[in-house]
From TrEMBL:
Renumbered residue ranges of the record's region Disordered: 675-739
Residue ranges of domain Calsyntenin C-terminal in the record: 339-680
Main location: other
Biased amino acid composition, Acidic residues: 687-720
Gene3D superfamilies in the cross-refs: 2.60.120.200
Record GO cellular component, one term: postsynaptic membrane
Compositional bias ranges of the Basic and acidic residues kind: 677-686, 724-739
Topology in the lipid bilayer: Single-pass type I membrane protein
Membrane-crossing residue ranges in chain numbering: 620-641
Protein name: CSTN2 protein
Lineage, uppermost ranks: Eukaryota, Metazoa, Chordata, Craniata, Vertebrata
Keywords, in A-Z order: Calcium, Cell adhesion, Cell projection, Glycoprotein, Membrane, Repeat, Signal, Transmembrane, Transmembrane helix
Gene Ontology BP terms: cell adhesion; positive regulation of synapse assembly; positive regulation of synaptic transmission
The organism of origin for this protein: Ardeotis kori
Stored Pfam families: CLSTN_C
Name of the coding gene: Clstn2
């Protein structure tokens, strides 16, 4: 007989079925033995990649990490002759097309060894670069969005009028198709007449997905028909993706680099030079200034898209090496151990290493090669988020018109957030020096012991804390090394007076480092991508000079450093400098300034800064304290001496009154007597004074005893007066007549 199924068998539901078969005769007698029939369900073979994970986690600093360490291709025993695989890392939505360093354009150019003198036309808004304040900005301050309604005027003096025959324009641009059949020009950069006329001297613009550079020479420079417009037609101009453009002008030759690849113009048109005039010119970004031919000057030919890092460098052109460095991605695909790829494997990377193509005729070799494909991000602080991965494959088979189809792989790399560093600037925060040192040729070093340290907070692995379920995870501060991109020394309070004071630095200190510096009345700025150690070395050489210190007693400065163009910033380190003058009155004022600061640093030490105060500041403050303490001791000693002297005089007076109570010491007492009064009243006063003296000397006696002794003394005095006679009375009268 036959066994048949009533529905489709599914391997995923059940791998095997067991059926017991028995037989019966006509009399319904059972067979002596039954037969067991086993039906094994075979899985339906699905060609494709097996054993891969959809989510791949990447921690910053992991280096090159394999994406598919166990992957293999299932072909269901098909006769495969060739396998073609493409791995694509999709990062178009990250920054400017991939994870690049987010340093300022000026710092990046210094890092890549570009020529100095580049002028940033789209800087981050600040007090000195305020022309970009009204533009729309992306979350990242370095990307500016233009919606066709705004432009920016570059102030006069930022870019020189004469760019010479050699100059370079660099920019990042993201642009889509222009609306309408006859799209208008979209200006990226334009230098035109400010008033009266509407002549464009040089401009870079997009027109119908073509990039056009215009350069009109002045009539005094050339009086012949010269190349004026250079056109490039590229698909990337309108693909809504980020691309890096460099226009190298070496007149009459103009070369375009896009994403590091050279492109020659497909069309060059000639024109006559511009006639000379005294009309001022206006440089603009995002639109072109129309100063003439209209009732009111205004912007025209607005740009639609995003721009970043727009710079112009007069007098120089850039090399291919520098251009490649400026647009290089810091993340991409990689192959671990190219030597062990195996024979018969061909591979190819695109310039940004976001696409890898592999080809081979052996399945096992392809499997091994794909297991070595990895993701790498060389940034110390990468942009966190998702990076999409797509793997597509095509298979050719022997002798078959229709071959097996391999489904695509859709996976993603999850890049974790890096531990945020805490940058700390420390050092001596207060000192005082004589005015002569500030007025000297070298001035005074501001930051002789500055220290820049960065630490990250790390939490210990939770696997070791099972016994402490309710406790907090221990936090560990770990010192780390990374680069900085600028440090500013800002003047607190009134700006520096250039006629009497300045900050100085020998530019020889910058040699051999990726650093540069700018100076102004607001402070001193050191910038460039370099190590914290190199920044310390340079900052320790910055000096403050003041060649007219008569009206200046102190100056305050603030130091602040940054990494990744302000993404991570340090604490604000404040420094106070006191100028000690030679005159006594000024010395006194300065001591009053210095002493509280020193006492504050003693009572509130902070790490190593306290030791610095103890070794430097006491040179002046200790002298002041010693003088004050010496004066106090002298006053106390003098007071004790005078008290003891007065006490001795008092004791001598008391002894004299006991021996002769009527003989007064007129040197110690001053008694004024009214001569109009009778003798009895002075006599009574004399008796009362003697009674008070007696009470002071005999404090331990009772009041009754004191009264009795007073009465006895009065009786004795009366008897003596009676016995003496007239001569004694005359003497007595003379003693009572005081001067």
């Amino acid at each position: 007989g036959n066994i048949r199924n009533t529905e489709k068998l599914n391997y995923d539901k059940q791998h095997q079925y067991e059926i017991m078969v028995t037989a019966f005769d006509c009399g319904q007698n059972h067979a002596t033995e039954d037969v067991l029939v086993r039906v094994n369900v075979k899985p339906v073979c699905k060609p494709g990649w097996q054993d891969w994970n959809k989510r791949i986690e990447y921690k910053p600093g992991s280096g090159s990490m394999p994406l598919f360490p166990s992957i293999h291709l299932e072909t269901c025993d098909g006769p495969v002759s060739l396998i073609h695989t493409t791995i694509e890392l999709q990062t178009n939505y990250i920054g400017k097309g991939c994870d690049r360093e987010t340093y300022s354009e000026k710092s990046l150019q210094k890092l890549c060894g570009a020529s100095s003198g580049a002028i940033d036309l789209l800087p981050s808004p600040s007090a000195t670069t305020n022309w970009t304040a009204g533009l729309l900005m992306d979350n990242n301050d370095m990307i500016f969005k233009f919606d066709g309604k705004q432009g920016a005027k570059i102030p006069d003096g930022i870019v020189p009028k004469n760019l010479t025959d050699q100059f370079t324009i660099t920019l990042w641009m993201k642009h889509g198709p222009s609306p309408g059949l006859r799209a208008e020009k979209e200006t990226i950069l334009c230098n035109s007449d400010k008033t009266e006329m509407n002549r464009h001297h040089y401009a870079l613009y997009v027109h119908n997905c073509r990039l056009v550079f215009l350069l009109r020479k002045d009539f005094d420079q050339a009086d012949t028909f010269r190349p004026a417009e250079f056109h490039w037609k590229l698909d990337q101009i309108c693909d809504k993706e980020w691309h890096y453009y460099v226009v190298n002008v070496e007149f009459p030759v103009v070369t375009l680099y896009m994403d590091g690849t050279t492109y020659e113009p497909y069309l060059v048109t000639n024109d006559w030079p511009i006639h000379p005039s005294h009309i001022a010119m206006q440089l603009t970004v995002g639109a072109c200034w129309q100063g003439g031919e209209v009732t009111k000057p205004r912007f025209a030919q607005y740009f639609h898209g995003s721009l970043a890092s727009l710079t112009i460098r007069p007098g120089r052109i850039e090399s291919q090496k520098v251009i490649s460095c400026l647009q290089a991605c810091k993340e991409g695909l990689d192959i671990n151990s190219l030597e062990s790829l195996g024979q018969g494997i061909k591979y190819h990377f695109n310039p940004s290493q976001s696409v890898l193509v592999m080809e081979g005729d052996d399945i096992e070799n392809i499997n091994q090669a794909l297991r070595k494909v990895s993701y790498i991000n060389s940034r110390q602080f990468p942009t966190a988020g998702v990076r999409r991965l797509k793997v597509s494959s095509k298979v050719q088979c022997f002798g078959e018109d229709v071959c097996i189809s391999i489904p695509d792989i859709d996976a993603y790399v999850m890049v974790f957030q890096a531990n945020e560093p805490k940058i700390t600037v420390s050092g001596m925060d207060h000192f005082a020096r004589p005015a002569a040192q500030f007025e000297s040729e070298r001035g005074v070093t501001l930051l002789p012991d500055i220290r820049i340290v960065s630490r990250v907070t790390k939490v210990e692995h939770p696997g070791d804390l099972r016994e402490h379920d309710g406790a907090k995870k221990p936090v560990v501060l770990e010192e780390m090394l990374h680069n900085l991109d600028f440090c500013d020394i800002l003047v607190v309070g009134a700006e520096l007076d250039p006629e009497q004071e300045c900050l100085e630095l020998d530019h020889a200190e910058l040699q051999g480092k990726h650093l540069d510096a700018t100076n102004s009345t607001a402070g001193y700025s050191v910038y460039g991508v370099d190590s914290m150690h190199n920044y310390e070395q340079v900052l320790r050489q910055v000096r403050y000079r003041n060649w007219d210190t008569s009206a200046t007693f102190d100056r305050k400065f603030r130091v602040k450093c940054s990494e990744l163009n302000g993404r991570y910033t340090s604490n604000e380190f404040n420094l106070e400098v006191n100028i000690l003058h030679s005159s006594n009155s000024v010395d006194h004022v300065n001591h009053m300034i210095v002493q509280p600061q020193f006492l504050q640093s003693v009572h509130h030490p902070e790490g190593s800064t306290s030791a610095i105060h103890n070794s430097v500041v006491p040179s002046v403050a200790t002298v002041v304290i010693i003088i004050c303490v010496s004066i106090l001791i002298f006053i106390i000693t003098l007071g004790v001496y005078r008290i003891r002297t007065a006490h001795q005089h008092s004791s001598a007076d008391n002894e004299g009154s006991k021996e002769n109570e009527m003989d007064w010491d007129d040197s110690a007492l001053t008694i004024t007597v009214n001569p109009m009064e009778k003798y009895e009243k002075p006599h009574q006063t004399e008796e009362e004074s003697e009674e008070e003296d007696t009470e002071d000397e005999e404090e331990d006696t009772t009041s009754a005893e004191s009264d009795e002794s007073e009465e006895e003394e009065e009786e004795e005095e009366e008897e003596v007066i009676v016995q003496k006679g007239d001569k004694r009375s005359a003497t007595r009268q003379e003693q009572l007549e005081w001067d």
